[in-house]
Amino acid sequence: MKNALLVALREVKEYLQDKADLAFSLILPIVTFALIYGAFGGSGLFHGTAYVVNEDTNGIYAQQLLNSIKKQDSLDLQLLKRADADNKLNRSDLTMVFLIPADFSDKLNLGQPAQLTIMQRGNGGQDGQIVASIVSGIVSEMNQQFTVAAQVSQALSGQNIPPAQIAMTTMQFLKRESTNPLVGIDEVSIGSKPNTVKEFLPGILTMYVLFSISLTAAAINDERKKGTLERLITTRLTIGQLFFGKFLAGVLRGFIQTLILMTLSWAVFRIFTPFSFVETLLIALLFATACSAIGLLITSIAHTGEASTWVGVFFTMTMTMLGGTFFTITKGTVLYQIGRISINGYANDAVKTLINGGSFSTLGVDIAVLAGVTVTAFIVARMLFKAVPQGK
Amino acid sequence: MAENFLAAQDLQKSFNGNKAVAGVSFTIGKGEIFGLLGPNGAGKTTTIRILSTVLDADAGDATIGGFSLRKNPAEVRSLIGVCPQDLALYEELSALDNLIFFGRMEGLDGKEARSQAMVNLALMELTERAKGKIAKFSGGMKRRINLAIALMGNPKLLFLDEPTVGIDPQSRNKIFETILNLRDKGLTVLYTTHYMEEADRICDRVAIMDGGKIVAMDTPLRLRSQIGDPDKVTLEDVFLKLTGRSLRD
Ligand SMILES: Nc1ncnc2c1ncn2[C@@H]1O[C@H](COP(=O)(O)OP(=O)(O)OP(=O)(O)O)[C@@H](O)[C@H]1O
Ligand SMILES: [Mg+2]
Fold first, then answer.
1. Does the beta-carbon distance from B88 to A17 stay under 8 Å?
2. In whole angstroms, how far apart are CA A169 and each of A61, A149, A163?
């Protein structure tokens, strides 16, 4: 056991000193993290830009409309000159532009219907349609205000109330109405709130541990090629110790990798509690153990470095796809059933459960599968393992 | 002659039906430097790999320090040190870390491993580069480290498979000096080389192998005398006479 540990520590030491390996285990995860953070880090809601040509430059209602658009969280406002807008629409640089005509405010002041024109290319595009519907919501709100104001002032006319006071009161009512609407919208999410980071992070985490399979497999072949593996046989180290040392080295590599990733994700996404961090680490350790055993199995079957790297990568990618790393696989579908052969599917599920606040005690199946794979792969690998082809 | 430290009987090994070692028997006395010579592909390295427990012989056995290769490989391993033909080093680690690691694999504790490593580095005049990464070493330095590792754990029998390939005369002399000093302290050595004058200089006895078999075995002097005036004939002449002039592999 002590010798095996020395073998493992030696390998880990070299791994930490090898720049390529280190780049793989540190920089790549950080890049992946930056990418998911860029993709999922912001809010998941729609965000678009309303392009507006305002020809009613001094009109107060035009200004009011623009202010309302600006106030929308989901919309950015960008003002354009008419010629510029036409140009961009022609070149398909834009698909939709709103035009506030010069007489917009004047007409409204006179109590006449005013027009907001939507100039669009084709159907304006999907984003354009959404922006259009948000803008028409704003417009209908304005309409409502005019209607109410007009009706109130008509009802109160002749009662000697100053028009300014009527307008003021109307505005107050409308404001109260918009903050306390009669028909409100209550958001109810089924299950916990969807969170893309929590959805995809476990997959990325397990994918990198899975990659350690290829590393374990390659590391042994690499040592065989260097001749140090054969040299080890001539020492007092037994083949059993050597095998176990390589197994431990794989576990440590995978574990170090996960530790880095988990710490990063804790720091960046704050998705762990200290308790769920430790629990997830335990699952990761078990998964790293399974991966190391599989890595050894691959080495024992594929005798050259290239062969084992390819088998390792192929295995990793297949398991990653089936395990739902890149897309969510819904329970009950055929793909889900196929995905059951993916060991990182189990690890993903377990990690997902933990970071979503689930209990460790519900992970019996996942843990049993991972442990079963570990033991089976370890035993088969040990039976097939030869440090020297044609030899021991 | 002193008692035998190694006795090999009828060792055989085939790879895919080709006999690499075809019935090799020889003995090496305690404290003797025994040269194993032969053209490329003669079976020298395969013989060493069998004797150092890496490969199982198809037939035959050997006793080393009284232990049978087949029955007590673990005991045999505790007596031997191997300097392989191809460098076998951890390039990313320092010279010292390499020596300490293999020392620990030989059963030394951390402290012992470190002190032996320092002794062996000094022996190879590499003390100043102890902390340097192997990857940055010259070929000659790597060869010296390759040998220094073989000395870890104080082996009683040293297998040196072409330890002086591709190095300058200074490094080579350093290696000879070390081997001769250790021999004087009772170490037994099996040495292979393609440099005949080297074998002539340091080997007490040599065996010339060809095609997996030993074709001649004696002291260099007696081998030279067999084909002429030993002062004029070189070991290379003997070698070429016995193994012919045609290329092997
Ligand atoms: N692992 C192996 N698989 C197949 N053939 C092998 C293997 N190892 C050695 N051989 C063959 O066995 C024969 C003896 O090889 P060996 O390496 O023992 O020769 P050698 O005397 O050490 O040669 P050299 O002087 O070139 O080092 C060669 O024909 C070689 O091709
Ligand atoms: Mg050889």
1. no
2. 19, 9, 10
Q: How many whole angstroms separate alpha carbon A210 and alpha carbon A294?
A: 10
Q: Is B53 left (phi over 0), alpha (psi -120 to 50) or beta?
A: left
Relative to beta strand B213-218, strand A96-100 is unpaired
> What CATH number is given for A48-177 in this structure?
3.40.190
Give chain B's length: 249
Beta bridge partners of B14: B19
Q: How far is CA B78 from the centre of its chain?
A: 16
DSSP-assigned letters across all residues of A228-242: HHHHHHTSS--HHHH
Is the Cβ pair B90, A14 closer than 8 Å? yes
From the list B88, B92, B105, which residue is nearest A236 (CB)? B105
| Mean pLDDT for chain B overall | 93
Indicate whether this complex's ipTM tops 0.85.
Answer: yes
Q: How many pairs of residues across A and B have Cβ atoms under 8 Å apart? A: 75
pLDDT in tens, B159-183: 999 999 988 998 899 889 999 999 9
Nearest CA in chain A to B157: A234
Q: What is the per-residue DSSP string for B22-87?
A: EEEEEEEETT-EEEEE-STTSSHHHHHHHHTTSS--SEEEEEETTEETTT-HHHHHHHEEEE-SS-
Assign domain B1-79+201-249 to its CATH superfamily. P-loop containing nucleotide triphosphate hydrolases (3.40.50.300)
Domain ranges in chain B are: 1-79+201-249
CB within 8 Å: A227 and B102: no
Ligand 1: list residues with CB < 6 Å.
A 390; B 15, 20, 38, 40-46, 85
Q: What is the pTM of this model?
A: 0.75
Q: Are B179 and B148 in contact (CB under 8 A)?
A: no
Give the pLDDT band of residue A335 (cuts 50, 70, 90). confident
* Chain B hits for A14, Cβ within 8 Å: 90, 92-93
Give residue limits of the domains in chain A: 2-41+195-384, 48-177
Vertex A278: Cα angle to A277 and A283 (nearest 5): 95
